[in-house]
Amino acid sequence: MANITSTETANAIATIVAAEALGYLKANTVLARLVARDWDNEVAVYGQTVDINIRGSLSANDKTENSTITLQTPSTIKKSVTLNKHKEVSFLLEDFARVLSRPNLLAGYMEDGIKVIGEQIDSDLSALYSGFSQTVDATTGLGEDDFRNSRRLLNSAKAPLGDRYAVLHEDAEYEMLSIERIVNRDYAESLGSSVAADSYSGRFAGFQMFLDQKIAVASSECKNLFFHKNAMVLATRPMPQDGNGAGVVQTAMAEDGVGLRVTMSYDHDYLGWKVTVDVLYGVAELRDDHGVVVSTTEI
Question: Tens of pLDDT along 23-47?
């Protein structure tokens, strides 16, 4: 005789939703955390600029007996960052979908929206490569000499020795991992335990190395960035939270230290929650000689 199987009872079996929901696969992004940043709680309007002053140079003068001191008037250079990037991610989750889902989809999608905007900021910072005049051609393969040459250029510009970073495309990172002095335990340990630890955490030739999957690619060349943090700036201003009490709920959240606004309201027409995540920001090159573009070949 035939057994009663799941085929016959399919309409009576309730769907079991997993306790965990897979979220958005965020790219590995780091630039927003490494560059110079300017944040102010004052509300900005579209197109407003943020002026950043770069102090002029001082010099040491001889002081002889019975002579006056030499007063200096260093010229201050002003760099302007235009807050011209207003990015948003919006979605609506109907009640019906929320009821059928066990995981908290509303909170999950809000988190995903914040990640998407974080990726966009990193992409905009990466695109600043086109303005830097110092370049190193490593299209035949990233090697030790490319690190040394980049270090030389920053040293020549008197860039501070701390806060130097090498932010690599995934293909450049692949080539970096073939450099003997970076991966060879015997060499690293011969320099001392602390150096070995730094080496394995991604430090070489004075650069802290990071993978960033949003590094720009142009004509099959990866535009890796070797720089001091003052080479670039990210300026952000939180948007106003005036909607509270007017039918919406607004709050500020953070992603990689960047403030974003989350706006939520209940949509009666669709019987669901409508959510928007947005941010106002601008990016700019600060010191041209504090950055080096190292070009490698995309695999």
Answer: 667 777 789 889 988 765 555 555 5
Amino acid at 178: S
> Which of 1-5, 27-31, 64-68 is the least confident region?
1-5
Query: C-alpha distances in angstroms, 46 versus 49, 84, 236, 237?
Result: 9, 6, 12, 10
Token pair 């110092």 in the structure block, residue: 134
For residues 264 and 274, is the Cβ–Cβ distance under 8 A?
Answer: yes
Please give the structure tokens belonging to residue 108.
């999950």
Q: Token pair for residue 9?
A: 């009872």
CA-nearest of 274, 275, 253, 251 to 118 is 253
Alpha carbon of 54 to those of 9, 31, 128, 184: distances in Å?
74, 21, 19, 41
Query: What is the C-alpha to C-alpha distance for residues 117 and 255, in angstroms, rounded to an integer?
Result: 9
Name 52's bridge partners: 79
Looking only at the bridges linking them, the beta strands covering 164-168 and 207-211 are parallel
DSSP the chain: -----TTTTGGGSPPPPPSS----------HHHHSEEEE-SS---TT-EEEEEEPPP-------TT-------PPPEEEEEE--EEEEEEEEEEHHHHHH-SS-HHHHHHHHHHHHHHHHHHHHHHGGGGG---EEE-TT---HHHHHHHHHHHHHTT--SSSEEEEE-HHHHHHHTT-HHHH-HHHHHHT-HHHHHHHHTTEETTEEEEE-TT--EETTEEEEEEEEGGGEEEEEEPPP---BTTTEEEEEEEETTEEEEEEEEEETTTTEEEEEEEEEEEEEE--GGGEEEEEEE--
Q: How far apart are CA 51 and CA 53, in angstroms?
A: 7
- Give per-residue pLDDT as tens, 144-200: 999 999 999 999 999 999 999 999 999 999 999 889 888 775 555 555 545 444 333
